[in-house]
Every structure is written in structure tokens, then in C-alpha cells.
């Protein structure tokens, strides 16, 4: 019983901190995961006193990683779909993805590039902090699944590495 009360106090404090972050920034949603505890705080945005409606995107399916590449049309050739199967590098946070260090700089990686473990693939900006997303292992970039300056969600596939 005392352990449950302790978790409730910790959760309430964390929720208050997350709500403060929302109030101090232009974010509409923030999510934190610690072990099996997952807390998501969101606020509704109103425009001219009418709430803005958001539709939840379906979660990517592990058996079909190409479904996560919404901007690109799905290829009709099954061989093309099989060729795109690989390891997804996912976003560790909510933010904005940038494919290069600055607008005039070249992209960190292109499809077909060989990368080394720890090499920067792209950047996710969250709360004015640039967070490099690094290659989890040596490999070849099969595809970049997000566009430059595109908002990304926690767990969203960003880059596809060869399997």
C-alpha cells in the first residue's frame, strides 16, 4: 500500500512537470516512459474558440516497415516491397527532423550511403535542442523515411538500414 502511494506521488509530480513544459513551450503533447510507467500529457489547441481536431496515425506494423513512409507512394511491385525490408532507426522523442546541419549544408546521409556505428543520420530538434540520431550499427542506408523539417513522433521510423 505504501509503495502504491509513493508511485502516485511521483506520478503526480511528473505530470505537473510535464504540464509546466507544455505551458512554457509551443508543444501540444509530451510523453515520458520510464520502465513500465508511461505518461502522456496533451492539451487541446483552440483556433477562434473552436478546438483543432487531430487524427491519430496508425502505428507502424513490424511486418510492413514501408507503410511508415507515408510521403512516398506504395510500390505495386512486391519485389520492391521486399527489397525495402530492413532495420528501422526510430525517433527517441517528439520533435522536428532535420536531414542536414543547416539549410545550406549537405544532408548527413543519402540512400545507398555506407554508415558506421555512431555516425549521425539526422537531427531531431526538441525544445530548441538539437539531438543527433546516430546509426545503431555499421550498415547501408536503404531509405530516409522522413522529410526535412518534418514533425516526428516518439517511436516513428526515421531511417531504414539494410537488414
Automatic annotation (TrEMBL):
Residues 86-162 form the Lipoyl-binding domain. Pathway: Lipid metabolism; fatty acid biosynthesis. One of its GO terms (molecular function) is acetyl-CoA carboxylase activity. The gene is accB. This protein is a component of the acetyl coenzyme A carboxylase complex; first, biotin carboxylase catalyzes the carboxylation of the carrier protein and then the transcarboxylase transfers the carboxyl group to form malonyl-CoA. Pfam families: Biotin_lipoyl. One of its GO terms (cellular component) is acetyl-CoA carboxylase complex. GO terms for biological process: fatty acid biosynthetic process. PROSITE patterns: BIOTIN, BIOTINYL_LIPOYL. Keywords: Biotin, Fatty acid biosynthesis, Fatty acid metabolism, Lipid biosynthesis, Lipid metabolism. This is Biotin carboxyl carrier protein of acetyl-CoA carboxylase.
Amino acid at each position: 500500500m505504501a509503495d502504491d502511494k509513493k508511485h502516485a506521488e511521483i506520478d503526480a509530480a511528473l505530470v505537473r512537470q510535464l504540464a509546466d513544459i507544455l505551458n512554457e513551450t509551443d508543444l501540444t503533447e509530451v510523453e515520458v516512459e520510464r520502465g513500465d510507467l508511461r505518461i502522456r500529457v496533451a492539451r487541446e489547441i483552440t483556433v477562434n474558440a473552436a478546438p483543432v481536431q487531430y487524427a491519430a496515425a496508425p502505428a507502424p506494423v513490424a511486418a510492413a516497415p514501408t507503410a511508415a513512409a507515408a510521403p512516398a507512394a506504395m510500390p505495386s511491385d512486391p519485389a520492391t516491397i521486399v527489397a525495402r525490408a530492413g532495420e528501422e532507426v526510430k525517433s527517441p522523442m517528439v520533435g522536428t527532423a532535420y536531414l542536414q546541419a543547416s539549410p545550406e549544408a549537405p544532408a548527413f546521409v543519402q540512400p545507398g550511403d555506407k554508415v558506421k556505428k555512431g555516425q549521425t543520420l539526422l537531427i531531431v530538434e526538441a525544445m530548441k535542442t538539437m539531438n543527433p540520431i546516430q546509426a545503431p550499427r555499421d550498415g547501408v542506408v536503404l531509405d530516409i523515411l522522413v522529410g526535412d523539417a518534418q514533425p516526428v513522433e516518439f517511436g516513428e521510423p526515421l531511417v531504414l538500414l539494410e537488414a
